[in-house]
Amino acid sequence: MQLDQKKTPFFTKIKEYAESNSVALDVPGHKRTAMLTDMVDYVGIETFKLDANAPRGLDNLSRPVGVIKEASKLLAEAFLAEEAYFLTGGTTMGILAMIMSICRAKEKIILPRNVHKSVINALIFSGAIPVFIKPRIDMTLGIANDMPLEEVKKAIEEHPDAKAVFVINPTYFGAISDLKEIVEVAHQKNMLVLADEAHGAHYCFSEDLPYSAMEAGVDLSAASMHKTGGSLTQSSILLAQGPLVDHQRLKSTINLLQSTSPSSLFLASIDVARKVMYFEAPKKIPGLIKLASETRKRIQKIPGLQSLGKEYFTSKNVFDYDESKIIVKVSDLGVTGFDVYKELYDEHKIQMELAETHLILAVLSIATAQEDMDRFVKALESISEKYAPIKLNPVKPKIRYSEPEYAIRPREAYHAPKAYMPLIEAVNQIAAESIMIYPPGIPIVIPGEIITQDIIDDLQFYKTTETTILSDSESDLIKVVDKELWFKWEGDDDEI
After folding, report:
1. pLDDT-derived band of residue 119, with 50, 70 and 90 as boundaries?
2. Domain 410-495 part of CATH 3.30.450.20
3. pTM of the model
4. E-assigned strands of 399-441?
5. E strand or H helix at 223, and its extent?
6. In angstroms, rounded to a whole number, what is the distance separating the alpha carbons of residues 4 and 424?
């Protein structure tokens, strides 16, 4: 029986509580709110009234039996899943929960190398052995795309003992792998398929978009409601289906990672965003795709710029592409994507999702307006007018993708004795940390990989771009495995 998607069980109950005029002798300490802070002045007291912990009648996220359980059923139905879980730790938490619930120490998981850092963290927590697949590389844009189906099949045949195949749906830049075929091949070997659907929460609401993970038969998917679904930042969902999922272990793992004081604002924002996406997204997504397409055509006419859509990606053998994203190649102007990223905000107050050497990326949603795209195009025209007449040499291709050699498991490298050394001296050392530019948060090197000169050159280049580099080390140092101490280490191998 179809559920009433107009209902918002959790939001309705938390709103009822906020308006109840009850005496707050529990946490949080702002007491809904007797503490008049600058934030109260800005966002209003109602926001704090909704920020409750676990008052009577409001259910418990760790073991829902009331309104959270009801809201979860609505969520599952809306997203075409059998079960759905609210996450207040972002899709990072969902990815950790998926991998940790399936892979134990020294068990294998097949995955592309261009995964988010949260996947590497899950390997550290679980102790799993990664079997990396090289993604398809775009030598024009300098980005990693989908996983070639033939490479997935090869990895499955060579590693029939792997517990799961991990996919990205879509990549940060919108590339889609052949999920249905991957699921079929993996399930034949009794392997689960897990999806990082951080940028694909909107897929199930329109035939104009690629298949969602649930539609493709994926077993588990972590989706960022906040990225394209309209909920508050850090609120995500975990979707599940099929007989291969051990829900008891999955729930236990989620509760291991989830806060015992989850944000009621996050939960309520998922509840109401689900309702809007269910009723509004099917009507608005076709217009969104049209808006993105028209914007790409306008950008194509600007001297020195290219905006590349689905036709371009499929011509590069990418299986499918998410047309709600806009990629703009700017390097033919003689400037990098990092330069344009900064200039767009500093001079035009336009915040892009990210920059890379050759491009900038815009992420659109059903809340994107025509006037937003008009300002974007106008700003790009201004940048073109500034640089095109100068006729700077195009930024030279800085595109290489040498798969780093895997020496020891990420968990082993994380626990091993370590040393800090100058980056420029670290060739042939084993990395003991993940280092990445953020966004997108895809590691250039991960714990357990051997550091090459290419990796060092990449890191030194990114430092010149003033982009955010995430690492544990100071700017000119890198954390590596102390090989001498490591080989003498007498730790119990079973422990790691």
Report:
1. very high
2. no
3. 0.94
4. 418-422, 436-438
5. strand 220-223
6. 60
